[in-house]
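User: Batch of two.

Assistant: Item 1 of 2:
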Amino acid sequence: SVLLTDETRGMITRALMEKLRPTSVLVNIARAQLCDYEALVDLLCQRRFRAALDVYPEEPLPPDDPILKVPQDQAVIVPHIGYKSHEALQRRLALVADNLASAADGAPKNVVTERH
């Protein structure tokens, strides 16, 4: 997964998507703004490649969103709720427990600091 930053916003361009083969599957579970959404919808409608998406410019997905016009066999479209599965919760709890134990031992992990 990719963070949305000034550098990553729009990184999946029309030109990049046009290079995908028809057997390719573009998976975006990060942020919709990483991708040229208009181009994504257009190219999916042209059957240029397939996609699996759980992120959209507006969430929840409005009923008039253009992605809903994409042929159903071209895209798997699900709500942005992958983090709510039982397995994901177990992994998050294990990660938090490991991070806390490491910090208590004086060797913190997964430290996030602001870039300067």
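Item 2 of 2:
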Amino acid sequence: LAEDGGAPAAGSDEEEPAAKRVRHNPGPKRKVALLVAYNGAAYQGLQRNPNAKTIEDVLEAAMHAAGAISDDNVGTLQKISWSKAGRTDKGVHAAGQLISCKLIVQPAGGGGNV
């Protein structure tokens, strides 16, 4: 901490308490339906499993990278109301898998659609 007991000194390894962090508003979320198809040969199925490469993990990472899932919500699919109409097992392909979730479709600041 700074010598006056205030905020951490510049370059300090200490982090601010969660209550003092400023939250970034990435923009409004909308309920969407995703119709996805995939070759599941290299995956352990659709549903997320610890220590396994799954379709859900890949989809979430791609949507986060595109700005459709905020940093605050990545890692916990329940936070974006993730719901799937079915699932596949290891190595199984899908031609029309339906997933619904709440995504950021227009980032704050009007930077276009995701």
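Residues 55-65 form the longest helix (11 residues).
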